[in-house]
Specification:
Double Stranded RNA Binding Domain, two-stranded antiparallel sheet, globular, disordered N terminus, Fungal-specific transcription factor domain-containing protein, nucleus, metal-binding, VerF-like
Length: about 700
């Protein structure tokens, strides 16, 4: 039996190393292994006397040795078994040039950078450069945007050693947050500098990759590329959005061609869920805490960047109804490790947290601490939809909101894919299920996974002072959005409309939500008068009321720091609330006109209207707004009132009160283009409605 197992393993890994017992599936992996493990001294003749790191070029060695000597004498005071903070050749699959090694833990002292700053670019716009430096912008990035997208490894990022292209785009995004208090008069000049810098970065990146396609293997190139995609997607300009889509296609094609979508190809020795060989233990056991930490950073940085790519591909362009380019089935990377490992500032803290999470020494954590359930995004999603997800998976999701966000993104993609197929079939008005896209068994699986995620979010009890507040809040918002998608599908999706930007897509969705365009796409003569029915809204009514309070209650710094994709998802939820209020109000008014009396409070239209209006009035009261009849304390007496005259005043004001709240929510989110643009769309709709009413009365 043992001989048969060895024969199968040899057939699976036909390329064996002549120097050791290692074998590989591909010849290039074998050559890389030999160069890194058995020819290091020959290929890298220059050795640092301080940390024994080796280099193949004398100029790189000279710069390193000077920095290493300075750090050893002035800044770094390692533990007895730590190495100096110098990047050695830790992983043969990921060159050390992919990472930036810190000169000091972030952010113990001010950042200084020699890269181009806003003053260099602004030329004719000196007003935006007053008192602002690149260091300030980078700090704004990590204090605000990084909390929503932990793409970069903050403890090892320094502007003095990071590649210029990466520092520039970090500075561009960070400058959005470092220009407080908000001054609308200086926004134009700042936007021009940011857009010029972004366009230059795009050209430089594409030239870099065009000259050598393998440059995309470098983690910093991938990180820089992704940040350029994010910024361009949310600029209020169609040409910039098209440029971001083009960059997304390039990076996805490169990832496929270079094998980056499969961890077993890119980094076969880094699979923590499958014990590779006893040799890994002995090799890792000889490393210092510092080199183990940096080895983890090396692998995790690329992993997080690729998960970010999948997230952006699936979510960032969905408001414009653009289908993802990457399937979860082809993405073969294990789930990211816990978030507090990623944020650990030094090897000592990282070592302690590894032991706390996995109950084993850091030299052993790469050898199967979590199990097969965390082996890939697809397997983890399948496990979560089973009746009994594994404890290892639940622990991984609880410890990492970014991982939970990626799983939720994959579930939402699954819902949208099923919806595309469902709405190409003939309508089924006899189907009583509120969640009508899936079969009953499929809906049970999806809903079970959503309940697990909901419990994880609630158990976190996240607060604004938590370092992972924004990520857990993102999971919360997107969780509600995915539940709505189960029974209230996106209008652009089933209408077959693909728009040319996120802003345009949301504007189109607004007009479609307030009209009846979808009924035309679903064989209108065959459908009942109420295409959607109230059962869909009733199924998510509690979620809508709760998330409405959370969205509208986020003001000041919370709204200021909100990621643009969260704003887009929140706006979609608010559109669903708007449509539900309008439809429920019309049904109640029809009952009054027909029977001259209010419907029973148990009627679905009354339940929907009162529940949502209670949240709307609560948010308006907290924000200093409100309508006629709203008291300073307690519930509005018109809510759930059976008095006809009292309730009718609320019915007449209901939609206008909600729209005023929607406008406030949009204007509070002024940082990116979505908030101001959607506020303008709502203003135009209101102006058009008023014009139509005035014409009809005349």
């Amino acid at each position: 039996m043992a001989e048969t197992t060895n024969e199968l393993e040899a057939a699976y890994r036909p390329f064996s190393c002549s120097e050791c017992s290692k074998s590989f599936t591909r010849s290039e992996n074998l050559q890389r292994h030999k160069r890194a493990r058995h020819s290091g001294a020959i290929r890298k003749p220059f050795e640092c006397a301080g940390c024994q790191a080796r280099f193949s070029r004398s100029d790189v060695y000279k710069r390193h040795s000077e920095r290493c000597r300075q750090l050893a004498s002035q800044r770094y005071q390692p533990e007895s078994d730590d190495s100096p903070p110098v990047m050695a050749d830790l992983n043969p699959q990921l060159p050390t040039s992919n990472l930036v090694v810190p000169e000091h833990p972030w952010p113990e002292e001010p950042i200084a950078v020699a890269n181009e700053s806003p003053q260099t670019y602004s030329g004719s716009s000196p007003s935006i450069a007053n008192g602002e430096t690149t260091a300030l912008h980078v700090k704004g990035y990590f204090e605000n945007f990084h909390a929503s997208l932990p793409l970069l490894h903050r403890p090892t990022f320094t502007t003095s050693s990071a590649p210029e292209l990466l520092v520039n785009i970090v500075s561009v995004i960070g400058s959005l947050y470092s220009s407080q208090p908000y001054d609308p008069n200086s926004r134009g000049t700042g936007d021009q500098w940011r857009r010029d810098c972004w366009k230059r970065g795009n050209k430089d990146l594409q030239r870099l990759v065009a000259a050598d396609y393998s440059e995309m293997r470098k983690t910093w190139v991938l990180q820089t590329w992704l940040l350029h995609i994010v910024y361009g997607a949310y600029l209020n300009d169609t040409t910039d959005f098209e440029e971001s889509k083009k960059m997304l296609r390039i990076v996805v094609d490169a990832a496929r061609e270079l094998g980056l979508l499969r961890q077993g190809i890119t980094m076969p020795d880094s699979l923590s869920w499958a014990s590779q060989a006893d040799g890994m233990l002995s090799q890792d056991g000889s490393k210092t805490p510092y080199t183990r930490w940096m080895s983890y950073v090396s692998v995790e940085s690329l992993k997080v960047a690729l998960y970010t790519l999948v997230f952006l591909d699936s979510h960032i362009f969905s408001p414009a109804n653009i289908r993802p380019l990457i399937s979860a089935m082809e993405f073969g990377w294990e789930l990211p490790f816990p978030g507090d490992l990623w944020e650990a500032k030094n090897p000592r803290i990282w070592t302690q947290r590894v032991t706390e999470h996995f109950g084993m020494a850091p030299e052993n954590y790469l050898c199967g601490p979590r199990g097969i359930a965390t082996a890939s995004l697809s397997i983890a999603t399948q496990q979560l939809m089973s009746e009994s997800p594994s404890p290892e998976l639940l622990a991984a999701l609880t410890a990492s909101p970014f991982t939970t966000l990626c799983i939720l993104m994959n579930i939402n993609t699954l819902i949208r894919d099923f919806t595309r197929c469902y709405y190409q079939l003939p309508p089924s008005p006899w189907d009583p299920s509120a969640f009508h896209i899936f079969t009953q068994s499929q809906n049970k699986q999806i809903y079970g996974a959503m309940c697990v995620i909901s419990r994880i979010v609630k158990d976190q009890a996240y607060t604004t002072d938590s370092p992972q507040f924004l990520l857990w809040r993102t999971v919360d918002i997107l969780h509600c959005s995915a539940k709505i998608s189960l029974c209230r599908p996106d209008h652009l999706l089933i209408g077959g409309i693909v728009d040319n930007s996120v802003i345009a897509g949301l504007a189109t969705s607004t007009h479609l939500t307030l009209g009846d365009y979808v009924s035309v796409r679903r064989s209108a003569p065959l459908r009942p008068p109420h295409l959607w029915g109230d059962e869909g809204i009733l199924a998510v009514l509690n979620d809508l009321a709760s998330v409405l309070t959370r969205i509208a209650g986020e003001e000041g710094e919370g709204a200021f720091r909100e990621a643009p994709w969260v704003t887009a998802a929140s706006y979609g939820i608010l559109l669903c609330v708007w449509a539900a209020l309008r439809r429920a109000g019309n049904d109640i008014q029809n009952g009054l006109d027909t029977f001259n009396e209010l419907p029973r409070t148990s009627k679905s239209c009354v339940l929907i209207f009162n529940t949502l209006m209670e949240s709307v009035l609560l948010c308006l009261k907290a924000g200093g707004g409100g309508g006629e009849g709203t008291e300073n304390t307690g519930r509005d007496p018109r809510i759930w009132s059976t008095d006809r005259d009292s309730f009718v005043t609320l019915l007449d004001q209901g939609e206008l009160l909600f729209v005023s709240l929607l406008q406030r929510v949009c204007r509070d989110r002024y940082l990116w283009s979505i908030g101001p643009s959607m506020a303008t769309v709502v203003d135009e709709i209101l102006a058009s409605s008023q014009t139509t009413t005035t014409t009809a009365l005349a």
